[in-house]
């Protein structure tokens, strides 16, 4: 297993130094879902990798769990101003999934994540490469609960947490950007917590 430590400094001490502007540390882990929690049985679970990849594929739960896992120790930041520091997450890296799909074609500029219940979010391809993103199954060595996106969710911790789509079902690589659910409803298209990219310019008019 690959283990990547993104600067975890332990509990207490100077955790404020790594809180992005406008964020507050929480100890409990809030649940934030637009709508009800879907219950996805692992028997019905599939992950589709398609679009601008050389060999599009669909993995079932058994296939997916045979893949090598990558562990990330890092912080998460929600646009509603809570951050949880030093979380340990396990899953299959997007690098490995892309490799399994024969690599990206030159048209792969963005990735669109679609979930079982229809939530979508968009990311530039560069933001999901080089161990920055997982299809995660575990947090703190526990399988993800349904509320937190289990059996598996996208995990892209360097961007606001709405980009980490729960109940992930499909990753489609595309040439042209397609803003997702929150991105068309006033959230920023990119969502860098360190630049406080919370809302789109348009949303500031409200
Ligand atoms: N499918 C889906 N994924 C989602 C959401 C959602 O409503 N549906 N909410 C997003 C938002 S706004 C946040 S902050 C995180 C919250 O994840 P958590 O409930 O595990 O804390 O999930 C993100 N992923
Ligand atoms: Mo959020």
Structural write-up:
- With 206 residues, the protein is mainly beta.
- It has a single domain, classed as Sulfite Oxidase, Chain A, domain 2 (Alpha-Beta Complex), CATH 3.90.420.10.
- 6% of the residues lie in helices and 32% in strands.
- The protein is built from 2 helices and 12 strands; from the N terminus they run E-E-E-E-H-E-E-H-E-E-E-E-E-E.
- The chain has helices spanning 61-65, 94-100, and strands at residues 2-5, 24-25, 46-51, 57-60, 70-77, 82-93, 110-115, 120-124, 134-139, 142-143, 153-155, 168-174.
- Strands 1, 2, 5, 6, 9, 10 and 11 form a 7-stranded mixed beta sheet that branches.
- Strand 3 and strand 4 form a beta hairpin.
- The radius of gyration is 16 Å and the shape is globular.
- The termini are far apart.
- The mean pLDDT is 94.
- Bound molecules: the ligand Nc1nc2c(c(=O)[nH]1)N[C@H]1C(S)=C(S)[C@@H](COP(=O)(O)O)O[C@H]1N2 and molybdenum atom.
CATH superfamily descriptor: Oxidoreductase, molybdopterin-binding domain
Instruction: Compute the separation of the termini in Å.
Output: 47 Å
Radius of gyration: 16 Å
Biggest sheet descriptor: 7 strands, mixed
Number of helices: 2
**How many domain regions?**
1
Helix content estimate:
under 10%
The general outline is: globular
| Succession of helices and strands | EEEEHEEHEEEEEE
**CATH classification class:** Alpha Beta
Small-molecule components bound? the ligand Nc1nc2c(c(=O)[nH]1)N[C@H]1C(S)=C(S)[C@@H](COP(=O)(O)O)O[C@H]1N2, molybdenum atom
Quantity of strands, as a count: 12
Weakly predicted, low-confidence segments: none
Mean pLDDT, to the nearest integer, reads: 94
- The assigned structural class equals mainly beta
